[in-house]
């Protein structure tokens, strides 16, 4: 084990800060150390706290952290603000204040903001959460600002997501309902000493949300113990507990394959992104896959996503595709529960599986099947990593 990795395992805060910075900057050496720390992960409870601006999330996170400290738990707080290009360092200021105030090594606080581009923030958040886990933190709290697509991507890193609402939001509840509400495992109605808290709860019931609803007054520490209890009893392995009652009949069986993404080969990433953004989609991640000589923009769309692929060199497979076929659907990716079983079945049926299953960047395994076997489109089969 490298010295830095060992120091992080021993609880050295400075070493932890240093590696966190390296990971945020996507420094290859830092990412290598993170891989080295991988076996030490899997113990932390990763909690997402999200909700609209003005809901008092920071105060709630602070109160939650203090309650967990009272119970002897160590905590990392990742405050992520995808919009901080615009809003400035508000979170950072808060955090510095809190850190000075408590000066408690049991609470490690890290503010993350986009530096110019949106791409990769969700991935960096996921990596930092794993780092904090490896460093022995009992709880990793990911606090996001706002309710946009990026926040949803970031929130999906968490095992348990608390959506913070406040009384008097009125139409705001309607506005955010279609998005972030659906990823909630727990609702916290903060500032519940204000008029209208019960109405928010009634509305949630009326909408069919069936999950823990906790009333809190974060500034006074009220309801925080109840919130901790709700978090503790929420099990990551179970289906999202807030899924609406009305969905239950329609939920797909867990073993059924689903469309993971559609890969579209394009000449210009910028032009295509502009088109899809005009439809209300947003780029959650953007990266260059050096091995494949392709630049990828990922746009989540419901439970799946669109991946725009542009070649970075003339010898890129995507460049060859564009030359031969022109821009268009490059591949369809299906998520399957058991990739190896699927591959054996395909081979037994004589399908042209192009290679043995490979491991991708996110730890998932994948394989490609030739269009000749699939009805004319390159098919990618994916299985999420099982850890
Ligand atoms: Zn793909």
Please, could you describe this protein's structure?
It is a single chain. With 387 residues, the protein is α/β, with parallel strands linked by helices. It has two domains: 41-244, P-loop containing nucleotide triphosphate hydrolases (Rossmann fold), CATH 3.40.50; 258-383, 2,3-Dihydroxybiphenyl 1,2-Dioxygenase, domain 1 (Roll), CATH 3.10.180. α1 crosses α2, α2 (13-24) crosses α3 (28-37) and α7 packs parallel to α8. It has 15 helices and 15 strands. A hairpin with a 2-residue loop joins β10 (294-301) and β11. Residues 85-90 and 245-254 have low confidence and may be disordered. It has an eight-stranded mixed β-sheet with strand order 9-10-11-8-12-15-14-13. The structure holds zinc ion. Zinc ion binds next to β8 and β12.
CATH class assignment of the largest domain: Alpha Beta
For the largest beta-sheet, the strand count, sense and barrel status come to: 8 strands, mixed
Q: Helix proportion of residues, in percent?
A: 25-40%
List bound small molecules: zinc ion
Sheet with the most strands: spatial strand order: 9-10-11-8-12-15-14-13
Class derived from helix and strand content: alpha/beta
Count of helical segments? 15
Estimate the global geometry from the Cα principal axes: globular
The N- to C-terminal Cα distance equals: 22 Å
Computed CA radius of gyration, to the nearest angstrom: 22 Å
